[in-house]
Amino acid sequence: MRVALDMDYKVVFAALETVCEDNISVLCGPSDLLYGTVPKRLITCMRRIQQHGRALEPVVASFTAVYHHYDFDAQTPGNGYRTLVKVLHSCLLHIIHKGRYIASNYNSTFFRADHNTSEMEAYCSALCQLRALLHLAQQLMNDNAAGQLYSLQDGDLSRRFVQEYSSMHKACFYGRCLGFQFSPTLRPFLQTIVISMVSYGETYGKKQSGLGMAALSLLTSGKYVLDPELRGTEFERITQNLDLQFWKSFWNLTESGLITGFNRIASNPVQVNFTLTVPPVTLRLPLAADPSLTATVSPPIAHWGPGPVHMRLISYELREGQDSEELLAFSRTDPPPISASHLPWVQKQPRSPWLLIHVHGGGFVAQTSRSHENYLRSWSKELNVPILSVDYSLSPEAPFPRALEECFYAYCWALNNCHLLGSTAERVCLAGDSAGGNLCITVSMKAISSGIRVPDGIMAAYPATLLTTDASPSRLLTLIDPLLPLGVLAKCLNAYAGTEYHTVQPAVGSSSLSALGRDTAMLLSDLTQGASNWIQSFLDPMLNSGRAHALTSSPRWSQSSETRRTSTHTSTPHSGDHMDYPHGFEPLRSECLAFVRPTSCPIMRNPFVSPLLAPDNLLRGLPPVHIVASALDALLDDSVMFAKKLRDMGQPVNLTVVEDLPHGFLSLSQLAKETEVAAEICVARMREIFEQERVTPALRKRPKLEET
Predict the structure, then answer these.
(1) Could you give the residue ranges of the DSSP H alpha helices within 67-154?
(2) Which residues are catalytic?
(3) HSE (CB half, 13 Å, CA atoms) of 146?
């Protein structure tokens, strides 16, 4: 396996060298007279790529020799060091492919010299920045303990990594190179998201009606389709400097009526789908060690006192208890959403022995069960299980520990009232993605510390287990990730910690789109649905029309441009904190500096916020934990290190690392075959939890458990 990897990277670098030489040879010919300055730009670009390639080959060799030591186990290759090499590999393959095309077609009549030159320059910029990331990863590897992916004790090193992120140029990854590292079938979707976001960002904050803001977004989006450099520059600006409310409002567009309506049409129909509001009353649950004794569970009280907890019940089949008057009394809708008399053709099924409790993702600041409803419907059908999804209160209005309190209360309420949910709860599984995965783990930790029944298993998809900006190799991907940039990630984490805290008690049943007009959401949803078609239909022909003026927003390779970017770097606050790079090399610097608030609040290291930092006594007794992570996710190392920690304690844990997918792939499950396969893996893990033999608390406390 390792020999194959070594041969692979050697072949790629050899091909890169050949392509560079072939292009330089072709471009130095008589065609100079035909295209003026274009060959000079290409020659300069190819020589720079050649330099980067020669410098990177020994770096890659050093990583491939040791990165297997950082895997979870020999059967699960995956960690941030592997990922950085993989991303570099993808970039080099794009350059080789484009370089071969240029060398073969440069002298043809229909060759679009300016477009292809711009493409190669964009990838040259990306290669330069990836070279910087690999150098930073080398420093991490040198400074960290053997096999460790995080610098948990080196606050100075993490601070310098944040400073480096703040000043490094990122726009090249959001323009022509957008999504090169992901599955090809996902790239149009990523282009849609980025174009929608920059269009929305341009009108965000302007004094427009909802309809007016949406119309402006539609009108301005066209220029970002046509001009990838402008798109990259604008995306870099908004990801670095727009406030958290922008991100909340944009992400909550997935709650709009049009999008959820479309998802319901495209997804599996279910017999039961309605929301519940459970009042804040004290619960009593039997102790796991001695069911004759009970534990008291108080309702959520953090920040504004006792309040209700909102949930959504989804069931593919109507089961006993789900149409009961007792359950429907908790419904937020009037008249009640279901009734046996209203559905005489539906045969009521007996209660299921299984119950799935779901906690949605969204960075602790956005979305609800509604935006995750699409895959929940599929899960309910495939597993034939009722699902209770918790709509916890969101930050910054409801920082830690409000969300955890509500999720734990919902879990306890579900155990006491499983008969109303269509289940006997013989097997209970907690499932969540991203922030939801974090909450599933911490809810189970609270169950252990409270002495009540823990779930029979946890399925956590790409969970956040360390809510700090501590440096790790996979977190270097926040420099290039369109879905999880570090500036946005830090805003979400700080909001959950309460550093952007302003308590506002949420209104019962209030929509997450209350700040946006319904017409705004619907029109922006149209934009999101339609942008992929625009991109596919006329992105290539329009970009190939020789729009030289669009290149002014991309980094230049002229001496004056390098001098300008270097001077920007040297004038940056705390410039002395930048990393030392090899002599003669410096990454491109941004003209739009980011301000990233350090996640230094002590709450971040609370074990119920960052379970990776939890002492063993709070984790011992967890049920089997099944983690499904992505190799291209900036939070990959969170999953790897947490899985290692549980394994080393003797806790049952399983880690699966899927390839070529971004953070949040569950919400993309219908967009590509790869996301469907990843979603199927999540379903398979939950089925394992439901079908496993029931483990008693006494057995779970044994020091050595069989690895799953």
Answers:
(1) 80-105, 113-143
(2) 434, 633, 663
(3) 2
